Amino acid sequence: MFKTIKLTTIVYVLAAVVLVGALTPAFVIAGRKPKETPAFSEKPRTVVVLDAGHGGDDPGVTGVRTGVKESDLNLKTALVLGDILSSAGYKAVQTRLTEGSTAEGAFDKDADMQARKAVIERANPAAVISLHLNKYEDASRRGIQVFYSTDASEALATAMQKHLNDKMNVPTLGRGFEPIRGDYYIAQCTDAPSIIIECGFLSSPIDEALVTDASYRLRLASEIEAGLTAYLAE
Ligand SMILES: [Zn+2]
After folding, report:
1. How far, in Å, CA of 87 to CA of 84, rounded?
2. 133 C-alpha vs ligand 1 centroid, how far in Å?
């Protein structure tokens, strides 16, 4: 008798479960779905503007041995950094995607800089990173240096320079640098933290060989992404 009651109870419970399942409105089931969607897909991505310095009729500095144009190398570094940032979950916005200038029409340096500012304003980024290569009369001068203009950019400049010192400058040169503050259009045309990274000296045959090597640019771009991520996590 006891067993019979228990079996009967089980049958009733199972029937009730099946009935409730069949009668559950579709919207109740559908309503549960958003909670199962991973949260990261709903989070807006952090926007970073990448500015490949120079372009068009403005080649920037040129390589001491090969004559390679700074503008072309800046673009290559900006594009690989953009890929790395996208893979890390950022939205990377480039001021230029070609070897031409940012502004359309006949080349005009002021119009080009204004066009870059307009890209930054539209993007409303968490950070701006402008990529350049340096030049100095002494061919032995080497290394990666960060420049900035505003108080809002100081923490990013300091964090980025420290990271690039630790990972690149100290291991290869045996020394680091302090970030340098000055008047630079791209670094002060926005309220967002904005820095210029001079990724090496094209007046140095050693730095020139490094920055013309794609695997070196990939490594440098990875460290710039790591430096940015470390700064944004602070
Ligand atoms: Zn430059």
Report:
1. 5
2. 5
CA of 52 to the centre of ligand 1 (A): 9
Quick check: 153 and 193 in contact, CB under 8 A?
yes
Around ion ligand 1, residues with a beta carbon closer than 5 Å are 53, 60, 132
| pLDDT tens per residue, range 143-178 | 999 999 999 999 999 999 999 999 999 999 999 999
Question: What is the pTM for the complete model shown?
Answer: 0.82
Q: How far apart are CA 154 and CA 195, in angstroms?
A: 9
Rounded Cα distance, 221 and 178, in Å: 20
> CA angle at residue 211 from 214 to 74, to 5 degrees?
90
Report how far residue 54's alpha carbon sits from residue 92's, in angstroms, rounded to the nearest whole number.
Answer: 19
Quote the mean pLDDT of the chain: 88
Alpha-carbon span 37 to 218, nearest angstrom: 33
Q: How many CB atoms lie within 10 A of CB 104?
A: 9
- Per DSSP, the residues of 128-149 read EEEEEEE--SSTT----EEEE-
The DSSP bridge partners found for residue 58 are 55
